[in-house]
């Protein structure tokens, strides 16, 4: 069943990690995909996402996009016109940022994280909403938050603040855009195996992971495809009456502690 046949999606931060998983799943379900990222090359190596999708028979293109720059987000949304105009916006780009107690954090590092993890979501959402309203599209915006956006984690305080902001922003925007038929939802991943959790903030493959696994009901860390399935549902017409919602994708950990 092709859930996104005939739809065009812009996915930020989709050269690698969770975004790449979302792009591949969207393409599998018939979507045309604009890969919007600051770099074309996947951090984990391999074929660039848009080329991989093209090889698999999907319509796809790459657009260089720094989500902290609103004009870049506008350009990424405009690129979707190549495939008939935007139907789905996935604001996925993000960084883990400083991992120290707040009293030790350089405020410039904090501002950089906010500019990507929170401002980037605002920029992408505004650019997408304007285009959807102009086209008269009953579209879907999916914002990537985190379990840290629901319960704060010490040591990644700026990250928690930004992701909590994404959650509240999602609810507020859903209220604004609902009358125009545009849905806005948030996804909150737990530990997902990407370069963020193996290199930027090493967890997967460490003793820390071994100690945490018993606290996860499904007894494993997540994969990008686990998040991608949820995002695909929210982007599709199967979720036509779902907006202002948060979906946790963490193997059941947060709600069973």
From TrEMBL:
What is the enzyme's class at the highest EC level? oxidoreductase
Q: Which InterPro entries match?
A: KR_dom, NAD(P)-bd_dom_sf, Sc_DH/Rdtase_CS, SDR_fam
- Recorded superkingdom: Archaea
One Gene Ontology term of the molecular function aspect: 3-oxoacyl-[acyl-carrier-protein] reductase (NADPH) activity
Entry protein name: 3-ketoacyl-(Acyl-carrier-protein) reductase
Listed EC numbers: 1.1.1.100
Cite the Pfam families for this sequence: adh_short_C2
Annotated Ketoreductase domain ranges read 7-194
């Amino acid at each position: 069943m092709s859930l996104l046949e005939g739809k065009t999606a812009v996915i930020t931060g989709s050269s690698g990690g969770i975004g790449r998983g979302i792009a591949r799943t969207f393409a599998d379900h018939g979507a045309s995909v604009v890969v919007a990222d600051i770099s074309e090359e996947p951090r984990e190596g391999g074929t660039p996402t848009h080329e991989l999708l093209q090889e698999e028979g999907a319509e796809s293109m790459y657009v260089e996009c720094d989500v902290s720059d609103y004009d870049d987000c506008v350009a990424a949304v405009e690129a979707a016109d190549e495939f008939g105009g935007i139907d789905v916006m996935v604001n996925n780009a993000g960084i883990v940022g400083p991992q120290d107690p707040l009293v030790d954090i350089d405020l410039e590092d904090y501002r950089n994280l906010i500019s990507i993890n929170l401002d980037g979501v605002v920029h992408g959402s505004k650019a997408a909403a304007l285009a959807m309203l102009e086209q008269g599209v009953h579209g879907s915006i999916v914002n990537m938050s985190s379990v840290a956006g629901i319960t704060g984690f010490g040591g990644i305080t700026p990250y928690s603040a930004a992701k909590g902001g994404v959650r509240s922003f999602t609810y507020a925007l859903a209220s604004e855009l609902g009358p125009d038929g545009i849905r806005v939802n948030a996804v909150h991943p737990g530990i997902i195996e990407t370069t963020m959790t193996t290199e930027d903030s090493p967890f997967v493959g460490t003793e820390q992971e071994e100690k945490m696994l018993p606290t996860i009901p499904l007894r494993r860390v997540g994969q990008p495809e686990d998040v991608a399935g949820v995002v695909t549902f929210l982007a599709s017409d199967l979720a036509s009456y779902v907006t202002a919602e948060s979906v946790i994708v963490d193997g059941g950990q947060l709600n069973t502690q």
